[in-house]
Predict the structure of Translin.
Amino acid sequence: MLKGAKNSLGKISKILEKTNDEREMLLKNTRQIVNLSSEAIIECHRNNTKSARKKIETARRLLEKYRKHTDSSLHRYLVTPEQEFVEASSLLAILEGNQVPTHESLGVREESYVLGLMDCIGELRRNIYDKIRVGRAEDAQSLFDVMEELYLTLYPFAHFDKIIKEARKKLDVDRILVEETRIAITEEMRRSELIKSMKGK
């Protein structure tokens, strides 16, 4: 009575075992992509853009390699490494005064792209604060303009929270970051103007 079912289950077991092995391989090897992207972001904040670019390029090659061996059932395990890759690539582009790369040019899935840009807002905030600390208020203001525009461009994606996991949560955090950064820049600009007026007397 169960002969057919047992045969089917045996075949399914082998398929699932293969899928599980591929999943484990992906989880293990894509950690390197996440680490490279994180290191690239650190290099961006240190103004070591050449080093950041090398790390991003290495991450890109690894992503392309693993993507070729990943079927649709395992795509979700590439979201996090792709997301980190997008974040690092976008931050570098913005700090160098270039256009933010498209998801097509980065070769990532739509969900990864959107989430990566949302995370990039936090890194822009960090860079803005670094500029404020060294008295580069105008540069901080210019970067804030990009940060705010990126947030406003991403805000409508809160509507897709059921499709893009945690989109609304990330945007809520981004909104707070934008407002806090706006206050910090306003205070710094006022301080700078006050110092200029005192020197002029």
